[in-house]
Specification:
alpha+beta; Helix Hairpins; two-stranded antiparallel ribbon
């Protein structure tokens, strides 16, 4: 009977451990996205305060092309490949809203990780008395 209980507890711990690993991956992705949005905000600040008429625009994978700034109105994707014109402050507001959602999601994931850790500790603590009893009965 005790062996079956131990096996069940080990399986429970493995499942909880796998879930914790997945949540850690989610946390890393959220933190990376927050970092990217922070850099984007900084870039918008530079653009907004710049008097330069030419910049190097990143076209992807570290490739830049010289570009002339004709205005400070931006074209922003707002979902489903829909593009709208926005000012820099409006764009920064969109980014701020997205960051708020990410911070809330990060908090939820961190709370779930804490709950999993508590659950794992509970499983381990219930397994320990069983192990001690089996050690005492062997003597």
């Amino acid at each position: 009977m005790e062996g079956a209980e131990n096996q069940e507890q080990m399986m429970q711990l493995q499942i909880l451990g796998q879930e914790a690993q997945e949540l850690e991956k989610q946390l890393q992705m959220i933190e990376q996205h927050i970092s990217d949005l922070t850099k984007l905000n900084e870039g918008l600040d530079e653009l907004e305060n710049s008097k330069e008429k030419e910049i190097y625009a990143n076209i992807g994978k570290g490739i830049f092309v010289p570009a002339e700034i004709k205005g400070k109105e931006l074209i922003v994707e707002v979902g489903n490949k829909n593009l709208v014109k926005k000012t820099i402050p409006e764009t920064k507001q969109v980014i701020g809203n997205e960051m708020e959602k990410l911070v809330a999601a990060k908090s939820e994931v961190m709370n779930r990780v804490e709950m999993l850790q508590t659950e794992m500790q509970n499983v381990m603590s219930t397994a320990q008395p069983t192990e001690k009893n089996s050690e005492n009965s062997e003597e």
